[in-house]
């Protein structure tokens, strides 16, 4: 119940920020996907009662952010709109592709199709808004995908665990519906 409230709060905050500002509609939607795709990826770990997947999401998400922002400050490429020198790689694209690839690797391609579509749109919206060059978006997508690909394993709804008590050794099996 607590996670539902948190996800709802994130969604409402995203919608309010979507309605404000002078950004184009495509850029606003890309910004909204920046929040919704990782929120969905994280939320699906709760839906599946998947604490192992949640840990893998934390790790791939964190490593992706460190790598993305490390490159942004190291490369220092000027954006097409000349607003700053943090164009390479696209953070929006790396985050959305990290989340989409997490879903794909953990729960299967079919589950990830909407997230991949949203991530692709997000990358396009960054080029359309003149915030990134195409190579920034491609690099962000690759970086995000690799971080999840490396740190994520396939979900299994059957878990086996050894249980050791004082004078008893058993094997516990848990099946998630």
| Rounded Rg | 19 Å
Order of helices and strands: HHHHHHEE
Low-pLDDT runs of 5+ residues are none
Percentage of residues assigned to helices: 55-70%
Description:
A two-stranded antiparallel sheet has the order 1-2. It has one domain. It is built from 6 helices and 2 strands. The protein has helices at residues 2-19, 25-47, 51-75, 91-107, 109-128, 134-151, and strands at residues 158-164, 169-175. A hairpin with a 4-residue loop joins strand 1 (158-164) and strand 2 (169-175). The protein has 177 residues and is mostly helical.
Question: What secondary-structure arrangement, pairings included, does this model have?
Answer:
Elements: H1 2-19, H2 25-47, H3 51-75, H4 91-107, H5 109-128, H6 134-151, E1 158-164, E2 169-175
Antiparallel strand pairs: 1-2
Question: Features of this protein?
Answer:
single chain, 177 residues, mainly alpha, two-stranded antiparallel ribbon, 2 strands
Give a quick summary of the entry.
This protein is mostly helical and 177 residues long. It has six helices and two strands, in the order ααααααββ.
